[in-house]
Amino acid sequence: MTEVDARDEKYKNGEHKQRIKWVNVISIGLFHLPALYALFILHRLNWKTFVWSLLVILTAGFGITGGVHRLWTHRSYKAKWPLRVILALCFSVAGQNTIFDWVRDHRVHHKFSETDADPHNSKRGFFFAHVGWLMQTKHPDVLKYGKMIDMRDVVEDPVVAFHQKFFIPLKIMLCFVLPVLVPPLMWGETWQYSILAAGFLRYMVGLNSTWAVNSAAHIWGNKPYNRGISPAENVSVAIMSMGEGWHNYHHVFPWDYKAAELGNYTFNFTTALIDLFSIVGWAYDLRVPTADMVRRTVESKGDGSHPHWESRQDDAVKSE
């Protein structure tokens, strides 16, 4: 019996408990305190600092949505090495885990969504799905099935290998140092305000925007594509996450590079950026389902909230 199997057996027998990671609990809590305080001094910021912080959030967001999510996890499109380098650097700005860890956990999440093998199983409540899963050791099923995920495509990417090798210095410099240095050095912002706004607040907004996809978008919203799953269409999350809130659609068609319905740019800045890079040829082989495939899915599995369904109902009434 392997170590993971033994741990799994202990859990089933009630002998194994997910231990609290106090380092994560304390660090996440402490990072939020100055971020909350920063909300009260926003009106004192130089407008350039506010714009800079927003640009850093968008840069980090693109590294997550366009990079580790749509490219490396779902392979919904292909990217030439210059774009992959840009995405890896943007992801470093986000200050999250390595590309390998992020992709593995997200592939497990899709394959075993809303089960004990899901790292942020929303059936365990909003707080667990949002951030609680980072505050304790992983459920044995997450560890067990995570080892079964095929990660060869990620491991064989030289850009990912480079990012893995220099992960710590890239994360420190691009997530924590550079965003804080720019405002004081470029336009004379105070160090205190730069640390609070461009440092803590910007970082916490980015993290919570990502976490909201795991929590809010798995709990609240309509389900026009599949009424039988937890992920839902959540406009608020879509706004926060640059287009990742159209989550009912995404879990039905995870390989669609737009992560939203065909032709839909609504609150989906990531799709616009990928399309922009496709014009210069750095993004290619963009995968999408056919309109007929989407229509048939809506009609057979949706909850009736899709505009197509409503138009069909209107047509039926008119024909009577």
Automatic annotation (TrEMBL):
Keywords on record: Fatty acid biosynthesis, Fatty acid metabolism, Iron, Lipid biosynthesis, Lipid metabolism, Membrane, Oxidoreductase, Transmembrane, Transmembrane helix
Cofactors named for this entry: Fe(2+)
Pfam family name, one: FA_desaturase
Ranges for region Disordered: 298-320
Location(s), subcellular: Membrane
MF term (GO), any: stearoyl-CoA 9-desaturase activity
Transmembrane domains' residue ranges: 21-43, 49-69, 81-100, 166-188
Magnesium as UniProt keyword: no
Residue ranges of every copy of the Fatty acid desaturase domain listed in the record: 51-254
InterPro entries recorded: Acyl-CoA_DS (IPR015876), FA_desaturase_dom (IPR005804)
GO biological process: unsaturated fatty acid biosynthetic process
Gene Ontology CC terms: endoplasmic reticulum membrane
Topology in the lipid bilayer: Multi-pass membrane protein
Signal peptide: none
Similarity-based family: Belongs to the fatty acid desaturase type 1 family.
Entry-linked PANTHER family: ACYL-COA DESATURASE (PTHR11351), GH07782P (PTHR11351:SF21)
Entry text on domains: The histidine box domains are involved in binding the catalytic metal ions.
Protein name: Acyl-CoA Delta(11) desaturase
Source organism (scientific name): Zootermopsis nevadensis
